[in-house]
Design goal:
By secondary structure, the chain is an alpha/beta fold. It is built from 14 helices and 18 strands. Helix 1 crosses helix 5, helix 8 crosses helix 9 and helix 13 packs parallel to helix 14. It is globular.
Length: about 425
């Protein structure tokens, strides 16, 4: 059986798709991944972070039916949790899995294909396969290492926590074992989850993200590690020391959701930090680790956001040393507290504010890249090798015309404007290359 996989949304979702792929492909000798046009089954892992994400998933399902009418479609993921009825009402959809459980997706795939073509694994064998470490992220040089799922916060705008449930941490030994397997094929591993700053709080004995990262650095010597999205107020001094003293084994890069630079909007969002708390921590981080890539998520047009609130956000972005921004106009999500708030902002204004902040983020990123021009860096290749990623999260063109090995990090030098890297393939292996 030939299967096509489509993922919408975050790294946690992408990790979950790879779990689904690994289990489905282990279910029979003739099961393999395939392009959409040749697939007999299509697994769609959905996202519900915005209304656009829901719409994109439905649009893709319809496109599958047009381009490959014979393919059976299984819909899973966050949107499938909150909008299961909508997907089941679609004629194109064969099965809906309300969540991300790979075993449930395998069962749905088997039913969609008639109950036998994907079979062959059940009982104790299936349980063991679910416990096996993820071996690879298909078609990618950077691997995702998911350490927890769910979230205990109650941000007013967030539907993901409704779909994902409470925070649940993986055991440290399980994470380390999986990192060792992923490191065989991925020179960089990104530590991801839904709320990684809460890692370990539910474990007995209680753990912490800092302790886990320290153990990964000690016990998995091959790859470069990178933190996924993490709250600024949850980056402790121990993590700062790891960032500053790991000789770039922990990539000098943090993505810290801001959402707004206005205290009144932050209160409406039910965020737990103030503008000043975020500001102070960001400045402390930049002072402790240099150079460092700093990114943030921002929502524009949240109910009640006025021109002064937006100006506060712009002012904070201008002050802090961000190197890129992810900016999203707010959209109402069913079941969230924000959906019931008064004071909705016209969509036109939300988009105008988003464009202003995106433009500001682009300008700051270009200035940062120029400031790094001429520096020696270590990069991981991406995609077909046309781009590479530095430790501080600069995505750069590759100046060398020679083929670079995607299974290891490479040393190179940035161009004067920081937009390209020249890789010396005759140089000694980068210091994180596996022996």
């Amino acid at each position: 059986m030939r299967v096509h996989y489509k993922t919408f949304g975050c790294k946690a979702n992408q990790y979950d798709t790879e779990r689904m792929r690994q289990l489905i492909e282990a279910s029979g000798p003739d099961v393999r991944s395939a392009p959409l046009e040749r697939a007999e089954l299509c697994v769609v892992n959905t996202c519900t972070v915005t209304s656009q994400a829901d719409a994109d998933a439905r649009r893709f399902v319809r496109r599958v039916a047009r381009r490959n009418p014979r393919a059976r479609i299984v819909v899973a993921g966050c949107s499938a949790v909150l909008r299961a009825r909508d997907y089941r009402a679609m004629d194109e959809v064969g099965e809906v899995v309300e969540g991300h459980d790979p075993a449930a997706v395998l069962a749905a795939a088997t039913r969609a294909w008639g109950g036998s073509r994907a079979g062959g694994t059940a009982g104790a064998g299936l349980v063991q396969l679910r416990r096996d470490p993820l071996r690879r992220r298909a078609g990618a040089t950077r691997g995702w290492l998911k350490v927890q799922d769910g979230c205990d916060r109650k941000c007013a705008f967030c539907a993901t926590r409704l779909a994902r449930g409470a925070s649940r941490s993986r055991e440290p030994g399980e994470v380390v074992a999986e990192a060792k397997v992923l490191a065989r094929t991925h020179p960089e591993l990104v530590i991801t989850g839904v709320h990684i700053g809460h890692y370990g709080r539910d474990l007995d004995p209680r753990g912490s993200l800092t302790a886990l990262v320290r153990r990964l650095l000690d016990e998995v010597p091959g790859p470069r590690f990178r933190l996924g999205s993490i709250e600024a107020t949850e980056i402790d001094d121990g993590m700062l020391r790891l960032l500053a003293e790991s000789d770039d084994r922990l990539a000098p890069h943090l993505h810290m959701p801001l959402q707004s630079g206005s205290d009144s909007v932050l209160r409406g969002m039910r965020r737990w930090h103030t503008r000043e708390q975020y500001r102070r921590r960001a400045l402390d981080i930049a002072a402790a680790v240099a150079p460092i890539g700093l990114g943030a998520d921002i929502i524009t047009g949240f109910p009640g956001e006025n021109a002064a609130d937006h100006a506060d956000t712009v002012g904070l972005v201008e002050e802090l040393p961000f190197t890129y921004l992810h900016v999203f106009p707010w959209s109402p999500r069913d079941g969230t507290a924000a959906a019931e708030l008064p004071g909705r902002i016209p969509q036109r204004i939300s988009w105008e504010r988003a464009r202003e902040l995106r433009s500001l983020g682009t300008a700051k990123g270009e200035r940062y890249a120029r400031s790094r021009g001429g520096s020696q860096v270590e990069v991981v290749m991406e995609g077909d090798g046309g781009t590479a990623l530095t430790g501080d999260y600069l995505r750069v063109g590759v100046g060398s015309r020679l083929p670079a090995d995607p299974s290891r990090l490479h040393t190179g030098r940035l161009s004067p404007d920081g937009s390209h890297v020249a890789i010396d393939l005759t140089a000694a292996p980068a210091r994180f290359a596996r022996s």
